[in-house]
Amino acid sequence: MTTTLLELQKAEQKAALLFQEIEARQLVKAGKTEKQINTAIFLLADELLQIKKYWHKRIVRAGENTLHPYNENPPDLVVKEDDILFIDFGPILEEWEADYGRTYVIGNDSYKKQLARDSEKLWHIANEYFIDNPAITGAQLYEYCKALAVSYGWEFGGPIAGHLIGQFPHESLETEVKTNYIHLENHIPMNQTDSNGKKRHWIIEIHLIDASKKIGAFFEQLAGF
Predict the structure, then answer these.
(1) From CA 217, how far away is CA 66, in angstroms rounded?
(2) What is the pairing mode between strands 155-156 and 92-93?
(3) What is the dihedral of CA 21, 24, 30, 33, to 10 degrees?
(4) For residue 96, what are the domain limits?
(5) H helices within the chain, ranges in order?
(6) Residues 4, 166: contact at Cβ < 8 Å?
(7) Would you say residue 68 has pLDDT above 60?
(8) Tally of domains in the chain
(9) CATH number of the domain that 216 lies in?
(10) In this predicted model, what pLDDT tens digit does every residue of 149-177 receive, in sequence order?
């Protein structure tokens, strides 16, 4: 196991701890705006892990905003009773990036809970496929994730199914270089080394939506092991 992978795993473990505390402290609740929840998590991350820097914008999206992929900026919504919400945070921990996304359902709506569960389930299926096919291209893995979503009765909500991750700053998510993404225009094998001959590491993200009901779910973390 490379030093880079070990450091990325350590960063992700800390991100997971943050999300456990988000749940324990019940920061996700009805009556709060997305922005209020975002700020509360930001303050908790600083208090708990001294996280002050993020390598991409912090995302909290509820209700119909869960339909929107990363690069959109929908208006701030208030979280409702029986709502669905996802969080996507990319903290920097000792100069290593993490990228962690989870979905929460407020209330007992069984359909929304199934959507949230499937976002996690399909992530694990896609990750196993990636492990079994390490030379797959970004385009091929994107198509696989899209077809997987459809096979479970959902639509795939984003133009990407993941991206590179590494030591800060790795390639910015704001760039248009498609080879940094699990994207239809990335025809390079995902196990190809970087310009320094080092192994590249990937985040897989699963964004499922039901456009008719105006809801979505999101799950992401470090892939390949």
Answers:
(1) 7
(2) unpaired
(3) -20
(4) 3-222
(5) 3-24, 34-49, 110-132, 138-151
(6) yes
(7) yes
(8) 1
(9) 3.90.230.10
(10) 999 999 999 999 999 998 865 555 555 68
